[in-house]
Amino acid sequence: MLRTAVASARVGLVESRLKRPFITAQGRRESTVNAALFLRLGGGAQGYGEASTSIAQKHLTPAALRGALEKMALRARGRDVRSWRALVDEAWARHGDLSPAVAAFEAALLSALAAEAGTDLAGWLGGARRTLETDVTISASNDPRETASAAAEAAAAGFRVLKVKVGGREADDLARVRAVRAAAPKARLLLDGNQGFAPAAALRFVAAVLKTGAEVELFEQPTPKADLAALAFVAKRCPVPVAADESVATPADAARAAAAGVTAINITLAKSGISRGLEIAAGARAAGLPLMIGCRAETARGLGPSVHLALGTGYFTWCDLDSDVLLAEDAKERRAAGWTRRGRFASL
């Protein structure tokens, strides 16, 4: 068998508990069950990919993600990963509605190919950096004590940027921001609307937050993903950059968002995978738009491809790669991640 042919593949489920409930405008979770692909090439190189479930997208169940990965793995056995593009295109054609599974399949192929070439995925993608700084997310709890506790814990761990989930009742959102400010007064803020605002309400909310004295760097997807006109309306009038997140899953989506007038774009591998993510990044950079990279509820190991993409390219102004911080993982699992977490820093 060729050294670069897929010799074996195994699919399983990975369950992890969250340190505290994770709440957004779309729902709540206390744990995550993800589907994982372990892949080995003929020469012994190994690859890994992990597909996270989603609060907002109810069809992304563990069973659905696992089933799709099993089908992709079966079709890949014996095939040469140097032809990874054909394998990935085939996966998108068959399982495009289960994008985290396709992204996990692509990550497993490319990480194995990089290992066979004697490097890691970050090196294969350009090796621009060895360390990056991440934010940490404060979920949309309406208990000010819980919010303050999470923000104080993040500040004590050295995080300088906090991403605050908003998009519910304006009074609750403002109370959450004030609780974060009181507990971590030096932190810079990102606001994540998770599609929860009408355009005028989004602008009113940002103005109210700025009046508190908060340093807000970004407002992420305040309006519904299908209403690009609403997102553009906010972006053109907002005093801080407005990022398209859920509105952008493909390079074509990114081109439409840029043409409409959004002022930043979030790339999340669970939506796009690595190669489409690179195409989105190329289009955004050509349009002069800064980039954010996000995540879902991946374990430290599952977050690895996103960390390696950010490090390999060096493209991202904001790194929202914090799912490992939010999960209660043991040290053994973290050692398999392929990267190291030291407070706000992610390093190779």
CATH superfamily of the largest domain: Enolase-like C-terminal domain
* Number of DSSP helical runs: 13
What's the main sheet like?
8 strands, parallel
The CATH class of the largest domain is identified as: Alpha Beta
Instruction: Provide mean pLDDT, rounded.
Output: 97
- Helicity level, as a percent range? 40-55%
> How many domain regions?
2
| Structure classification | alpha/beta
Radius of gyration: 20 Å
- In spatial order, strands of the major sheet run 5-6-7-8-9-10-11-12
How is the CATH topology of the largest domain named?
A: TIM Barrel
Low-confidence runs (pLDDT<50, min 5 residues)? none
CATH architecture of the largest domain: Alpha-Beta Barrel
Series of secondary-structure elements, N-terminal to C-terminal: EEEHHHHEEHEHEHEHEHEHEHEHHEE
User: What is the terminal separation in angstroms?
Assistant: 32 Å
Question: In terms of quaternary structure, what is this?
Answer: single chain
